[in-house]
Design a protein that fits this description.
signal, Integrin_alpha_N, FG-GAP, binds 2-acetamido-2-deoxy-beta-D-glucopyranose, five-stranded mixed beta sheet, five-stranded antiparallel beta sheet, mainly beta
């Protein structure tokens, strides 16, 4: 198996920070020599604060996908260091368990971060096989409780962590493996029933009940971009699901909004672009509503980034105005929220921003939507972060050579810019609506350009400065 070095680049911008003192001028620096990650063999699967010191630590997955480790951020030494007691090697007998995802969370609500580990027996030869799951309960001093807790299996569509009933316990949403019939079975909730008196059990699988009018039929896609995120502006997280219709080869999404005690009800749905990859959620235009950033590559290998702007009622400009949000009361649901862009059924083309990547990615490369070296499906998402601190999220995209993962693969930083006439990606009405487009960052980006074997890229605030 290929050993992929993990490259970290630090962006130094804030003059008074520790980082800036280490790196006196603003710019991109390759810091992997000095932050203790040089010897990591494998990939970073998740971020989280393990020891409760308010600094982000990382969880790495071993190259053979059978072990994971924790690297803690050490503020004083300004480096990551392996927490030796927290490495887990999963036994491959009596049954193989190849890890395909790790989701940190507090599953027993004791204030300590735990890990939900998902895996399959043979994700390469039997990609649709049972998804086994187990929780390792975190224990700050010794790493993990040696006894993991087995969780009832799901189908290959990895369950989403969410809070079904607002009790602050982490539940899961997905298809239960037991008795699953494709196209027939509906969603289930792994309801968190943890109690210290029954320490070996966390979840109980029950049917998911949506309320109100039924939504459109949806078979969850694999991989999916399911998320628990506020989309109607009431400050309560809603359920976003991505669906795949194999007969039409069509990707779509459906949103169920959170009505607190009245459950989750269907709100909106729509198509995603052909060849859509992982959806990223971010407020791209700074209006307070979460938009969708969708990468897609068509059958000819032409890749683009689509931004689906979330339309919500505006802020009130006078006291008597209705259908608007008062500044003093921002968390009000907009029942009419919608996403403007629907590339195939374009109802509101005025807001359409489609950013073609042909002229932006390195020669011969195409957007990477999945990690080709991963056993199972590891979607590569677009990461957002405001690298220049102008209030608008910038994008980090990963590209590679189609069909050949030994050829160069790169990360490209795209800066958010206002839509302009010169920008082919913006229709005139998008310019009028002050939508955003992107421009490749080249100045000071040499350290990024030098990384030639990128499998994933993310923004991370080292030392939380
Ligand atoms: C949905 O309703 C059924 C029948 O009333 C119930 O058994 C099940 O627990 C409910 N699901 C959840 C997640 O509460
Ligand atoms: C939502 O749309 C309906 C129908 O167009 C309208 O009557 C209602 O006032 C709208 N609500 C808000 C909060 O904008």
């Amino acid at each position: 198996m290929r050993i992929v070095p993990f490259i970290v680049l630090a962006l130094s911008l804030v003059i008074e920070s520790t980082l800036a003192r280490k790196y006196p001028t603003s710019g991109l620096y390759n810091v992997d020599e000095n932050i203790g990650l040089k010897d990591v063999k494998g990939t970073v699967v998740a971020f989280g604060d393990f020891n409760g010191d308010k600094f982000t630590d990382i969880i790495t997955l071993g190259d053979d996908q059978t072990s994971f480790s924790i690297y803690l951020w050490d503020h004083v030494a300004w480096t990551f260091s392996l927490l030796p007691t927290a490495t887990v090697i999963i036994s491959q007998t009596p049954q193989p368990f190849i890890i395909t995802n790790i989701v940190p969370g507090d599953y027993n609500r004791d204030g300590k971060l735990d890990l939900l580990v998902m895996g399959q027996a043979d994700p390469v030869r039997n990609p649709d096989g049972e998804l086994m799951m187990r929780v390792y309960l975190g224990n700050i001093d010794s790493g993990w409780d040696p006894e993991f807790i087995t969780v009832p299996s799901s189908t290959v569509q990895q369950p989403l962590t969410f809070d079904y009933n607002g009790d602050m316990m982490t539940d899961l949403l997905g298809y239960a493996y037991e008795g699953y019939e494709a196209g027939v079975s509906t969603l289930s909730v792994w309801r968190n029933v943890y109690s210290p008196s029954v320490p070996g059990k966390i979840f109980e699988v029950v049917p998911m009940n949506f309320t109100g009018e039924p939504g459109p039929a949806c078979t969850l896609s694999d991989p999916h971009s399911n998320a628990f995120v506020d989309l109607n502006g009431d400050c309560l997280a809603d359920i976003f699901l991505t669906c795949y219709d194999a007969t039409k080869n069509q990707h779509s999404y459906v949103v169920y909004v959170n009505n607190k005690d009245s459950g989750f009800s269907f709100a909106v749905s729509g198509l995603l672009p052909a060849g859509a990859g992982q959806v990223t959620f971010a407020d791209m235009d700074g209006d307070g509503a979460v938009d969708l950033v969708v990468p897609a590559c068509d059958t000819r290998g032409q890749c683009s980034i689509y931004v689906y702007y979330n339309h919500q009622m505006p802020l009130c400009t006078s006291k008597d105005q209705s259908n608007c949000r008062q500044v003093s009361n921002l968390c009000v649901a907009d029942p009419n929220f919608s996403f403007s862009v629907d590339p195939d059924h374009n109802t509101s083309p005025g807001d359409l921003v489609r950013f073609p990547l042909n002229n932006v990615l390195p020669e011969g490369q195409q957007l990477l939507l999945a990690d080709p070296a991963f056993r199972g499906k590891m979607p590569v998402s677009i990461h957002v972060g405001d690298y220049n601190l102008d209030g608008y999220p910038d994008l980090l995209v990963v590209s590679g050579t189609p069909g050949n993962n030994k050829r160069p693969s790169s990360a490209t930083l795209l800066q958010s810019v206002l839509c302009a006439n010169s920008d082919d990606g913006c229709l005139p009405s998008a310019i009028a609506a002050k939508r955003r487009s992107f421009a490749k960052v080249t100045e000071g980006a040499d350290a990024l350009a030098q990384a030639q074997d990128v499998r994933a890229a993310a923004f991370l605030d080292l030392d939380e400065d």
